[in-house]
């Protein structure tokens, strides 16, 4: 069972994850099921799978950059906190599962950062080097986690999300740690 749970949190494909979840939980209610539903079930079309947390990974760096409409942006960030169950009273086991689910979402986002078009410039004509991709990836991860948390004073609420983003970034590319720490040091509100 433990091996299946580990496999479940490592798998990136939503369909395969759903099949693993069925094997693990056997139609019993569980926090894992709740997380899966919150992350992948598209409310308007329940028969379709949409990774709503992957969308947040793409969307949050843009909110960090937004210098206008601060109240609306804060409202968006607070909605994200609620969607990530970060205000819910959780048991230690649920907190661990939430952390692993967040890391899975960030890992799925990072898998898209390896594409040839990621971090390209001049209307996509100039391809980015691996170093440029790692630099951009690090900046995006920092903005969607520590950056957002620090700009809006939500470090406590977003702590688990920040930890998951950082851990997954360093697992993805250990050389990104130095740039991440530079962003932390250079932050000005």
Topology:
Elements: H1 2-10, H2 14-25, H3 31-40, H4 52-65, H5 70-83, H6 92-112, H7 130-151, H8 159-172, H9 176-186
Helix pairs in contact: 1-2, 2-3, 4-6, 4-7, 6-8, 7-8, 7-9
Describe the fold and architecture.
- This protein is mainly alpha-helical.
- The protein has one domain.
- It is built from 9 helices and no strands.
- Helix 6 (92-112) packs across helix 8 (159-172).
- The mean pLDDT is 86.
Biggest sheet architecture: none
Mean pLDDT: 86
**Shape category:** globular
Helix-strand makeup class? mainly alpha
String of helices and strands: HHHHHHHHH
What is the domain tally? 1
Distance between the termini: 46 Å
Give the number of DSSP strands: 0
Provide keyphrases for this structure.
single chain; 9 helices; globular
Quick take:
With about 190 residues, the chain is an all-alpha fold. About 65% of the residues lie in helices and about 0% in strands. The protein has one domain.
């Amino acid at each position: 069972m433990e091996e299946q749970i580990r496999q479940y949190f490592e798998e990136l494909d939503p369909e395969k994850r759903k099949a693993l979840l069925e094997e693990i939980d056997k139609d019993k209610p569980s926090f894992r099921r709740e997380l899966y539903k919150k992350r992948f079930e598209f409310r308007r079309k329940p028969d379709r799978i949409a990774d709503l947390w992957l969308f947040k990974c793409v969307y949050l760096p843009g909110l960090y950059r937004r210098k206008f409409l601060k109240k609306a942006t804060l409202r968006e960030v607070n909605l994200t906190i609620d969607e990530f169950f970060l205000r819910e009273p959780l048991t230690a086991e649920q907190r661990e599962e939430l952390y692993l689910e967040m890391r899975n979402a960030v890992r799925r986002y990072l898998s898209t950062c390896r594409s040839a078009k990621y971090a390209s410039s001049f209307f996509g004509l100039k391809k980015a080097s691996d170093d440029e991709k790692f630099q951009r990836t690090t900046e995006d991860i920092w903005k969607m986690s520590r950056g957002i948390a620090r700009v809006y004073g939500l470090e406590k609420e977003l702590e688990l999300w920040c930890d998951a983003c950082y851990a997954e970034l360093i697992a993805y590319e250990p050389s990104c740690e130095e740039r991440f720490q530079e962003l932390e040091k250079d932050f000005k509100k």
